[in-house]
Amino acid sequence: MPTFIPGLELCRRFYTEAVRPLLEEAAPGIPHSAARLGSGSEVLGFDTARSADHEWDPRLQLFLRSGDVSRHADRITHLLAERLPKTFHGYPTHFAPTGEANDIRVMRHTDGPVHHRVEVTHASAWFTATLGFDPTTTPITPTDWLATPTQLLAEVTGGAVFHDGLDVLTPARTALRWYPHDLWLHVLACLWQRLSQEEAFVGRCGEVGDELGSAVVTARQVRDLMRLCLLMDRRYPPYSKWLGSAFARTPAGARLTPTLTAALAATDWHTREQHLAAAYETVADLHNGLGLTDRVDPATRPYHSRPFRVLRAERFAEALVSRISEAAIRELPLVADLEREPLGTRARPGHCTYTE
Question: Which strand ranges, in their side-by-side order, compose the sheet holding 160-164?
Answer without folding.
Answer: 117-121, 59-63, 33-36, 160-164
